[in-house]
Specification:
The complex is a heterotetramer, with 2 copies of chain A (about 325 residues) and 2 copies of chain B (about 325 residues). With about 325 residues, chain A is an alpha/beta fold. Chain A is built from 11 helices and 8 strands. In chain A, helix 2 packs parallel to helix 8. The N and C termini of chain A lie far apart (about 50 Å). Chain B is about 35% helix and about 20% strand. The radius of gyration of chain B is 19 Å and the shape is globular. Classes of the chains: A alpha/beta (about 325), B alpha/beta (about 325). Chains in contact: A-B, A-C, A-D, B-C, B-D, C-D. The interface between B and C is large, with 55 and 56 residues. The structure holds thiamine diphosphate (2 copies) and magnesium ion (MG) (2 copies).
Chain lengths: ~325, ~325, ~325, ~325
């Protein structure tokens, strides 16, 4: 545990912001949906996959990225986008389906695109992995020293696009970092039922790609592993596979009954809350007082509330706008 | 004595269970079909009944598990594979298109592929462009695949039983909004009478779900429900609409379509799939081929206007056919 | 001074080379497009001209390299990906369908995907069910993809240049039998005049390749050649057929189609793709919508009769439209 | 080199038969196609991918298989099908597109199906790999002790279906053997340009699948490696990945100009002709005289000629038969 105060506090602030954003969405989402849950109702309809519990991974990796480093994400994209430094207002507005959203309401929570931070995501598992390879290829062709990062889950590591992407990245020696967030489940399917090896880090060898496993609940550990991976890419030394073992504190999506969980499983994982782990490390160093932690939480509450207010007050797109943007 | 009512998802699960009891070679594989019971309930309770050997949760490997189903079928099994959302077809399309659909033909009939590939379709709940598609037209365009699209619990059970017993590959499309799920917008037409005993419904027989004489409405899946709602409203205004649920696109019940058009002289096609180069065009074409002189007005098509499905509610409602737009189209057709 | 003659494949390669010289962000990736020059010659000589950094041979990883092209496009490149045979689309369909076609829309226009995906189509040389398909109807059904299908060397160069400069994803389909390759059945129409300087042909403009007054024939790709041969034979018998090469299915030149039908009152669609739920149905539908009262006979469709392409020559020739069957269909149409 | 005379002679006979069949096709194929090559012309139109040079792999693996062990193959299927013990007459007839072919002329050289020996193949790279997994799953569900085998090239090992199939086979502990025939090229693309590791055997570890590399020109070496793999599967001990390094002596397909080859590359590989290697081993043992070798060659010539005659004399299917068999 060898990071300076600034860096650790930045990580902490990112994690608290992501947690605050997600937990607030977890409240707003149910507005007008209950008592009889109706997925189509409320200010935020459709599926909702929240990142609560995995914040240390997004924070620890994106801490090494600049605005112009491309990041591709998944159906669970909020944490990555926030850690990448997104403007919360158009992000929240997009999740609300408002005209002021990044995608003018066409994308929603699973399809958030912000070119100003080179961020994209999507709802198809594995779909974003080749995009990071392509972004890295563009970077290499332009002889820039940017780095592309692709986040995806352990479930996605079993789809063909994973294999093809890692092979291409290694073949072409591309500046890309693959981050597998192993949160133990793909919806209800546990890793043992989906993955024929204990650790996806073992799969790096199949491509000659250096791979490392890290505790995804420990932001500092993620930060250090990601630092090495991102530096390797920036120095033109090719791709890395980072496997972060983590856990989602909410269901796969909101409304998930989680009947597939073991008894007390979630409770024991909650003892490894990334906020407490990093917060504890900071407090041990005397770098974070309870009052300071309070202040950070309050600041993040305010930022999320401001974004929420912006989103709520923004207009919906006109129905006819559905016909725009099919072609450039 | 009161009829037994079932939701569509329970009707599907019951059909699968009865066939699994009847035939050892039937099994199910796919993502979250075991402990979870299928994201849309189509396999609920099957793991408990039949165990993990025959109800197999797979990794996220569409090419792999659909190809596995094809291979198992060549060795005498009768697999049922669930694709979850049809939108994910692209991850396994080669196995669907070049293998599942073609092996029987390429082999000159010496190798059968008796399998069912089921998938959820449709939108209207803001799941956006990658989770709201219908796409049955793509597969109906593919020689070698039978395309089944039930619109009621009764049809779902009978057509699923038929699909499992069919010796050809069948794609079975069920609409998320028609499953009768507790977390979807309540839909009374998603629950209905379903006999307990096993029964089949032959493919290629459309069902006239509402008789009428002024205009023929051709449709499938959740749009059947909306067209029936529209027909009831139109009836109040003295307009008699005949709502035909095609039920299967391959084989297609050309006769029922043509006979209805010859009776009403006007036709509206309501399609939740994309407008161009799909189901709606094909239906107009066969009518123009077989009933051209009976048409008193150009056929009308109400479908998704060649845009991906947008997330935001007002835009989504603008592109997916609604009861109001169905009614307006019928009126325009009558007046023309 | 004599015109410069080029084969279609050389015309394509020239268009790509000129755009690569003009724009640094254009590059090509795909299988065997480097040293081999593309299985169908579309990239011949490009490796020598531009080197392996911009002419990239890929592994057999359709999902990977098409997705790579999409990702590179989001970062300002203008990739040209070659799929070799369109039949292989299934191995990369998710990237084509849910990403290449939808990202611009899902992003509300903030992310462009300026790429070309080119693929060889068609049969008539006994390459059987997995190497003889056309499938352009599948992609024309997909919102967000422009569908280009040239039928001459001149059109191939102009439409390829246009495709590379377009800011939307374009699928460019070329027929193996129209490339002018030394190992395919000789085809005089696969060689023609092609200006050396760069030029574009706008999308959405059909080309009337043979004027006529008795019947309208709508078609694309190699079938344009067969329809032209048929039209010449029919002319000898005093039958005047208008052959319209649609050139692009998305956007579609509705106006030229409708105007021709209003002139001839009879229409035959000739399509090497599968018959049902595809191009031929869509074309009949728009004619029924816009020119119903002008039709003196039901529109006719000549397409692959919903069977996979069989290997053996007599069977393949039975299912892919031939000059003789085109002629017979026209005569039946005239007589009806 | 520890096999008995019988076994080695059987391998030799298989290899000579495959070679004789392929080289004869290499002659027939050009009938009526020259001087100006027209792929659509002649008694055998369409693409033609011949197996000459790789015969030891098919022979060495299939020596351990029974008629009811499922085999899936590729666009280059003749060797596997012959080694599996196919009836040459309907096989040749199918390649000629005749009514008496296994597929009544609908399949042709790339799409040969013979359920009596549980053999299938196809023209899509990687397409057959999941089929072997499915066949193995069927075997396991029926509690039989059959073994499924999938042959594919090193090029196919870079497509997603390879990754998904090996993961499934390992997860479910299926009786299947994956045989990668590394003949150095995928059409014109050399392995170094397609594969990010030196050996596909290194990829077994990504699935926890035992993997072995073997000299694919040496039938005895293949035989021994395959024996272990097939036994492992038959004993319920799960899948194996066998990588056979081999070489095709003809182009990727007939008509291939092979401009992508290194100078003298093919010549030096021809010094490793599997017929000479195995023949030499047999002669060293005194188990094969020149006269016996002659006799075997003559026998195989006769068998191939008989099949050719059967095919030539068979009728073509009627054109309308194209409309049959779309559905069962
Ligand atoms: C190709 C594809 N198959 C299936 C799905 C349905 N699906 C959405 S998320 C998910 C689980 C993903 O698991 P993982 O990759 O581990 O990510 P996590 O949800 O755990 O963050 C599945 C199966 C999909 N979206 N795309
Ligand atoms: C999915 C797919 N992509 C591309 C092709 C075109 N193709 C046919 S064979 C081949 C090369 C295969 O190489 P390999 O797997 O090494 O087998 P080999 O030909 O060397 O025996 C390619 C690219 C195809 N048939 N299928
Ligand atoms: Mg997971
Ligand atoms: Mg090879």
């Amino acid at each position: 545990m060898s990071l300076d105060k600034e860096t650790m506090l930045d990580l902490y602030r990112d994690i608290v912001l992501i947690r605050t954003f997600e937990e607030r969405l977890g409240v707003i989402y149910y507005e007008d949906k209950l008592p009889a849950f109706d997925i189509a109702a409320g200010p935020i309809p459709g599926e909702m996959h929240l990142y609560t519990g995995q914040e240390a991974v997004a924070a620890g990796v994106c801490a090494h990225l600049n605005k112009d480093d491309p990041v591709t994400s998944t159906h669970r994209p909020h944490g990555h986008m926030i850690a990448k430094g997104v403007d919360l207002n158009p992000m929240m507005a997009e999740i609300f389906g408002k005209k002021t959203g990044f995608c003018q309401g066409k994308g929603g929570h699973m399809h958030l695109f912000d070119p100003s931070i080179h961020f994209g995501c999507g709802g198809i598992v594995g779909g974003g992995i080749p995009h990071a390879v392509g972004a890295a290829l563009a970077i290499k062709m332009k002889k820039e020293n940017r780095v592309a990062v692709s986040f995806f889950g352990e479930g996605a590591a079993n789809i063909g696009a994973f294999h093809e992407s890692l092979n291409l990245a290694a073949l072409w020696d591309l500046p890309v970092v693959f981050v597998v967030e192993d949160n133990l489940y793909a919806i209800s399917v546990p890793k043992e039922a989906s993955t024929s090896v204990r650790s996806n880090a073992e799969r790096g060898a199949a491509y000659g790609i250096p791979a490392v496993q890290v505790d995804g609940q420990d932001a500092v550990a993620v930060y250090e592993a990601a630092q090495e991976a991102v530096n390797r890419a920036r120095n033109g030394e090719g791709p890395t596979l980072v496997e972060a073992i983590c856990y989602r504190f909410r269901g796969h999506f909101e409304g998930d009954a989680e009947g597939y969980l073991q008894e007390n499983e979630k409770e024991s994982w909650k003892e490894k809350d990334p906020i407490n782990i990093l917060g504890g490390q900071l407090k041990d160093q005397g770098w974070l007082s309870d009052a300071e932690a309070e202040a950070i939480q309050t600041e993040m509450n305010d930022r999320v509330m401001a974004a929420e207010q912006f989103a709520r007050e923004s207009p919906y797109p006109a129905p006819e706008e559905a016909l725009d943007h099919v072609f450039a | 004595m009161s009829e037994r009512l079932l939701t569509t998802s329970k009707a599907m699960a019951e059909a699968i269970a009865q066939e699994m009891e009847r035939d050892e070679s039937v099994f199910v594989l796919g993502e979250d079909i075991g402990a979870y019971g299928g994201i849309f309930g189509a396999t609920e309770g099957l793991l408990q009944k039949f165990g993990p050997e025959r109800i197999i949760d797979t990794p996220i490997s569409e090419m792999g598990f659909i190809g596995t189903a094809v291979g198992a079928a060549t060795e005498g099994m009768r697999p049922i594979a669930e694709l979850m959302f049809v939108d994910f077809f692209g991850a396994g399309m080669d196995q669907i298109y070049n293998h599942m659909a073609k092996i029987h033909y390429m082999s000159g009939g010496n190798t059968k592929i008796p399998m069912v590939l089921m998938a959820a379709i449709g939108g209207s709940y803001s799941d956006a462009a990658q989770h709201s598609q219908c796409l049955y037209s793509l597969f109906a365009h593919t020689p070698g695949i039978k395309v089944v699209i039930p619109a009621s619990p009764y049809d779902a059970k009978g057509l699923m039983t038929q699909a499992i017993r069919d010796d050809s590959p069948v794609m079975f499309f069920f609409h998320k909004g028609g499953q009768g799920l507790g977390w979807m917008t309540p839909n009374p037409r998603a629950t209905g009478h379903v006999p307990e005993e096993s029964y089949t419904i032959p493919f290629g027989k459309a069902d006239i779900k509402h008789e009428g004489s002024d205009v023929t409405i051709l449709t499938v899946s959740l749009m059947v429900h909306r067209c029936l709602d529209a027909a009831e409203k139109l009836a109040e205004e003295g307009i008699s609409a005949e709502v035909i649920d095609l039920r299967t696109l391959v084989p297609l019940d050309r006769e029922t379509i043509i006979n209805s058009v010859k009776k009403t002289h006007r036709v509206l096609i309501v399609d939740e799939d994309y407008l161009s180069y799909g189901m709606s065009g094909e239906l107009v074409a066969i009518i123009a081929e077989d009933a051209l002189d009976y048409l008193d007005a150009p056929p009308k098509r109400l479908a998704v206007p060649d845009v991906p499905i947008p997330y935001s509610r007002p835009m989504e409602q603008h592109v997916i056919p609604t009861i109001d737009r169905i009614i307006n189209n019928v009126k325009e057709l009558i007046e023309s």
